Amino acid sequence: MNDPLGAFCRHTHVTLPGSETGPLAGLSLAVKDVFHIEGHSTGAGNPDWLRTHPVAETTAPAVQRLLDAGAHIVGKTHTDELAYSLNGENVHYGTPVNPNAVGRIPGGSSSGSAAAVAGGLVDFAIGTDCGGSVRLPASYCGIFGFRPTHGRIPLDEIAPLASSFDTVGWFTRDARLLEKVGRVLLDDQSDARPPRQLLLASDAFTLAGGTVTAALQPAVTKLSQAIGPSQSVTINPEGLSEWMQLFRVLQGAEIWANHGAWIREVQPTFGPDIHKRFEWTATIQQAEVDRAREEREQVAARMDAFLGEDSVLCLPTAPGIAPLRNTPADELEVFRAQALSLLCIAGLARLPQVNLPLGTLDGCPTGISLIGPRGADRLLLKIAVSLTP
Q1: Contact 125, 32 (CB under 8 A)
Q2: Which of 51, 115, 177, 262 qualifies as a FRET site for 184, CA 20 to 30 Å off?
Q3: How many other β-carbons are positioned within 10 Å of the β-carbon of residue 121?
Q4: Global pTM exceeds 0.70
Q5: Are 292 and 379 part of one and the same domain?
Q6: Is 133 tagged catalytic?
Q7: Active site includes 76?
């Protein structure tokens, strides 16, 4: 395979034909290397994981839906180690090239999938989104990226990260294909009702800063024209960083529950930043988790009240363009915390979110997002298509 972007795995390479008929017939698909495919190994971005896990006996239902719809798999794509990062820099397998932001990271953990789509190596790709691992690389790479309502797409036969946040997401360069893939993965052929109003998350734009806000203003105008009246709202008067801390505690506890026993037994080799994160997850106390779970439900109720059945929330996907490759770890952590403060909203509230590649800053992509009501995935896909000439 011609892979000038370093997006594809050589150690877990897979090719599979899809059905000869179906809505995705003839389209090429890349699969993040956390999805199990029968008869093949899953690497999850770490050589020790690959070494200590058996060949898959069953194909992930999400992958099978796409094969049955006619898409053909051309390879598995790189991921951050066990999907626990937003950067896309893997010490074992390298960093895929971001073709739309030269010299900058592609974002993670679905780094290879985003790079492969952005660079035109495949028609579309799937990844997973727990803390933002589809939405953020979509923003960095200037493509469409979709995180569905939590639980809408089966998570069976996928290496987990944090189960109450994990979702199956997908990337395309084209809004119509984004919707077509969504119909298959969501198993939903229904028509969506039009949105009633556009809510502008003032505190999210403030967090991203004036430069990003100015860069996204043409996109906000375009969305207002397409959707209708807009209203400015404050998502959390106490600060979005407060919600980010809730997310980190809950995600971290679930990560340790999923992987702690394996880590203690195998003592795997992780990159320095990933290693520190796993060490921290082992220290989270149950009292912290219990308190965070209660507060999460308050977040979800607040978001449900904001959105009702047919409003959508507009916010920056990321606090800026993709950081440069090899940015010092401490600088990346600051940026990561800002990004998670934006990305945690949909995750905590279990809501669907779409990244729209409508902004540029300093010659690089920067995305704008819409968050929809719970279960209103088709509504967001319909809006994305309506913005396409």
Answers
A1: yes
A2: 115
A3: 23
A4: yes
A5: yes
A6: yes
A7: no
